[in-house]
Amino acid sequence: RWIDAGGLLIRFAGPRLANNADDLLPVRLRPGSRALGSALAWETPLAVAPFAADSPFAGMAPPGDVRIRQQVLAEPASIEQAHVWATLTDHSPLVTARERGRGLIVLFHVSAGPDWSDLPLSGLFVEMLRRTLAFTARDAGAGEHAIAGGPYVAQRVLDGFGSLAPPPPDLPAIAPERFTVALPSPATPPGLYERAGVSAAIDAARSDEALTPLPVLPGVSRAGLDSHVERPLAGWFLAAAALMLTLDLFIGLLLLGRLPRLARAGAAALLVMGVMFAPNVHAQSRDDPTLVVRLAYVRTGDARIDRTSAAGLEALTQALIDRTSVEPGPPVAIDLARDNLAAYPFLYWAAPSSPQRLSDAALANLDRYLAIGGLLLVDTRDAGRANTASRPAQVMLAGVDVPPLEIVNSDHVVARAFYLMRSFPGRYPSPHLWAEAASAASARDGVASLFVGDGDWASAWSGEAGIDDRQREMALRFGVNMVMVALTGNYKSDQVHVQTLLERLGEQSR
Questions:
Q1: Could you report the per-residue pLDDT of 68-126, keeping only the tens digit for each?
Q2: Which of 72, 173, 317, 332 is placed for a possible disulfide with 151 were both Cys, Cβ 3.0 to 4.6 Å?
């Protein structure tokens, strides 16, 4: 009765409908369904055919990537009593409809989900449903393809700030034939419109319209804020005050007759010139490297390797500034034989192409650095090669008092100093990393001073290694942990025993 009174019934096919059809359908269905493109079927999935001119869907273009894999078929004799609104490319019905009293029954011969076809995943499906709803509101006596329902009435329009706002009360409605070709204007402002329960929009710009920069307007000059260099004038004012005081004293002595004219005049001139042209002298005239934490790298003589080391430590320095409370200064290149290493808590040494044995001065300087608690990371950069023997490290550290080394695992303090880590990737995802054994570092509370690895970490830190963002992030985390070990020592080593402590607490609670 509801349909006879003017209701609209939209139905979709499915396994139940294919096997148990009823009379609330526009056509009689054949038992079962038609499978297209299955393993046992000869036919391939079909596309949606162009809509006929007398269909409510006329004017819409079916997407080329929509494929129908399964459908229910209608008895040929019953199709003559119904209206076919859409078909497949083999002319089999996709959408059929039939009037019943004053109402309408519409059947989509595919399911409403993506299991039978790609149609529900496309924008065409939504537009077909909108056209179907609009079709039911057509004027009495209109043809089958007519979709009426009055003019388009504005619901929300864009204001001058790009926000959707209620339309002005004097905004006229738009006729359907004008709405399809309407462009943004005061009479047809962009926004949302409604007609017969179906919403439509007038866009603020066409889809093929490109946004270009505003050209330089004629007669308009461009100006910016000039940079002003501040110059300290305190010294000049102090010199001027001293000069005036000297002149005042000189004139007073001259008037009293206590100063020979020529001799005293020459002395005063020399004094004034000395005050005016004296260089600036400060108590801290040289930069003290101990005032700011700086990461350092060993200058190898290979320009490419040194540039990579500098860029890597700059990236690591920025990561420390962004993520931790440590704010290091710019990295420093050092000479092992000449520079004082005590001011640098972390020292990165990348292996050159042809490593050479250190001089006696460099050996003594490096031994002293390791003994006082400095942290040295020796990077042989050869993890990706077939032969990863420790020959570069042996040559580089020949003559150095190298303590016993052990493999670094996830229980080591470097794996917990700031980030929790299980591996220590650099340019290579799984490099080797050795550290001074805890037994050898007992004099320094078990804090290792020497790390030897082959991950080419500077290349990963700087982003020059060509690795993905995730691997570079893990390499930066390893670098942050290394610096934290250099600054805080075994501060986080108690985390190694967290599991045991938790187990003991659990036993006590029982």
A1: 999 999 988 888 889 999 999 999 999 999 998 888 999 999 999 999 999 999 989 99
A2: 173
pLDDT level of residue 49 (50, 70, 90 thresholds): very high
Within a domain: residue 288?
no
Q: Would residue 211 count as lying in a domain?
A: no
State the DSSP code for 22. Answer: -
Choose among 107, 92, 9, 98: nearest CA to 46: 92
Distance (Å, whole) CA 501 – CA 498: 5
Choose among 315, 323, 385: nearest CA to 351.
385
Whether 381 shows a pLDDT value over 70: the answer reads yes
Token pair listed for 502 = 């938790």
Amino acid at 46: L
**362 shares a domain with 315:** yes
Contact 45, 37 (CB under 8 A): yes
Whether 116 is in a domain gets the answer yes
Residue 399 CA to residue 412 CA, distance in Å, equals 27
- Where residue 118 sits, what CATH number does that domain have? 3.40.50.880
Kindly state the tokens that stand for 172: 């006229």
CA nearest 154: which of 179, 123, 127, 129? Answer: 179
| Strand duo 450-453 + 433-436: pairing | antiparallel
Q: For tokens 């949606």, what's the residue?
A: 48
Q: HSE on the CB side for 161, CA within 13 Å?
A: 3
pLDDT tens for residues 240-255?
Answer: 999 999 988 888 887 8
Angle formed at CA 389 by CA 383 and CA 394, multiple of 5 degrees:
110
Q: How far apart are CA 448 and CA 441, in angstroms?
A: 6
Neighbours of 409 (CB within 10 A): 12
Burial of 30 (0-12, 13-18, 19+ CB in 10 A): middle
Burial state string for 271-282 with b = 16 or more CB within 10 A and e = fewer than 16: ebeebeeeeeee
| Residue 266 vs residues 269, 273, 275, 322: alpha-carbon distances, Å | 5, 11, 14, 61
Compute the average pLDDT of residues 291-317.
Answer: 93
- Looking at the structure of the chain, the number of domains it has is 4
Residue type for 332, please?
V
Q: Which helix (H) or strand (E) holds 249?
A: helix 234-256
Same domain (yes/no): 130, 158: no
The amino acid present at 335, given as its one-letter code, is: D
* 289 has a pLDDT exceeding 60: yes
Estimate to the nearest angstrom the gap between the alpha carbon of 50 and the chain centroid. Answer: 43
Domain span at residue 76 reads 8-136
147 in Cβ contact with 138 (< 8 Å): yes
Residue ranges of alpha helices (H) inside 138-195 are 176-179
The DSSP string of 365-394 is HHHHHHHTT-EEEEE---TTSS---SHHHH
Q: Which residues contact 131 (CB under 8 A, 6 or more apart)?
A: 56, 57, 60, 147, 198
